[in-house]
Amino acid sequence: MQTNNRSILHLDQDTFFVSVERLRNRCLKGKPVIIGGMGGRGVVASCSYEARQLGVHSAMPMKLARQLCPDAIYIRGDMELYTRYSDMVTTIIAGRVPLFEKASIDEHYADLTGMDRFFGCRQWAAELRHDIIKETGLPISTGLSLNKCIAKIATGEAKPNGMIEVSPPIIRPFLDPLPVNKIPLAGPKICHSLRSMGIATIGTLRKIPPEVFERMLGKNGREIWRRANGIDNSPVQAWNEQKAISTETTFDNDTIDIHHINHVLTSLCEQLAFRLRKQQKLTGRVSIKIRYANFDTHTLQQHLPYTAFDHMLIPACKELFHRLYTRRMRIRLVGIQFGRLIRGAQQINMFEDTARMINLYQAVDRMRYKYGAGAIRRATAHNLQTFRPLDP
Predict the structure, then answer these.
(1) 3-class DSSP state for residue 117?
(2) Distances (CA, A) of 115 to 36, 92, 297
(3) pLDDT digit string, tens, across residues 212-254
(4) Alpha carbon distance 243, 168 (integer Å)
(5) How far is CA 52 from CA 15, 40, 254, 282, 349, in A?
(6) DSSP string of 172-207?
(7) What whole-number distance in Å separates Cα of residue 298 and Cα of residue 250?
């Protein structure tokens, strides 16, 4: 049953990467800007509205983007800079909202339920949006409604740089005329199937019995029907509840074999990164733990641009270990922790990696889904007797 007394705010930075670049270079304002891989196999990570009007979109091969928009300004991207601005926005929200969820690098939810007793949720949301724009210089769109799904759809309709409130009496009039691809979970394949059945709008979808969609699409079908009817009881999950994931291993014999320890760290990091990708999460902080033979335990951490890629996380872990290991005593245990987790897929690093690299990760992960997390490893991490693999 739908909970009708909630007030959920969705906040989404407009063309986030492009907006940050425009803060750094004001000459980019009003011009088509495309951010992505610069190599022949690169893909588009983000693009401005001016570029979108010419047919460019995220995940498009950069070669095609250049054909569609040859006069655009092309930028490789700076994930470290984008992460810093993302953290600025998160800090502002955390200082003003009692319960919020960081859904991705440029997207947040906030539960404003009960704030209508003070200034009213709409005014509170408007002031929060104003503060973010003023303090960061970044445009942001927001949607306010009684659940996360409707709030997210409202944000999409508020773009660029606007705000929409969808109160309970106008939910159906708001949703019904919208195309089915506005529903979260309704991807291109599902929308194509729906349109082939003559279902083009949310209003049409809403009138069809949910059993039809469940037979056709499984559980996702019923969930899509529920969202078309404005039903979504999923809670705003406090970001602090998703702080970190970690793993560690205790050696059979205390060791000072740095070569072997590096191999173990590679294995731990590799499988922990796979867990991130499996959960569709990214990490913004790496921590290393060492326990010496005398049980003294030391840790060291480092912030880094949000990622779930092995080839970015493994070097960071190794560097931290070598900075931390200063006593030259035998080591009993090593551990790795990935913190500051947010939701997001590996495509967020498309401007740092070619399509070939992304396809390689996806192919390897498909093998791990099928045969288990330890099915494929780097050669340097193979045949480690002291390594205990994570559960698949």
Answers:
(1) helix
(2) 41, 17, 45
(3) 888 887 778 888 999 999 999 999 988 765 678 899 888 888 9
(4) 34
(5) 11, 21, 58, 26, 20
(6) HHHHTTSBGGGSTT--HHHHHHHHHTT--BHHHHHT
(7) 15
SS (H, E, C) 34-77: EEECCCCCCEEEEECHHHHCCCCCCCCEHHHHHHHCCCCEEECC
Torsion sign across C-alpha atoms 225, 152, 233, 184: positive
Domains of the chain listed by start with CATH number: 1-169 (3.30.70.270), 176-238 (1.10.150.20), 243-381 (3.30.1490.100)
More confident residue, 205 or 117: 205
d(CA 224, CA 316): 40
Task: Please say if 241 is a catalytic residue.
Answer: no
The SS3 of residue 161 is coil
**Which residues on neighbouring strands pair with residue 80, listed in sequence order?**
none
Which residue in the list 107, 165, 223, 270 is annotated as catalytic? Answer: 107
**Paired strand residues for 339:** 244, 285
Residue 355 and residue 261: Cα distance in Å, rounded? 32
Exposure of 51 by Cβ count < 10 A (0-12 exposed, 13-18 middle, 19+ buried)? buried
Q: What is the pLDDT of residues 303-340, one digit of tens each?
A: 998 888 888 899 999 999 999 998 889 999 999 999 98
Q: Cβ distance 142 to 153 under 8 Å?
A: no
Enter the pTM of the model.
0.76
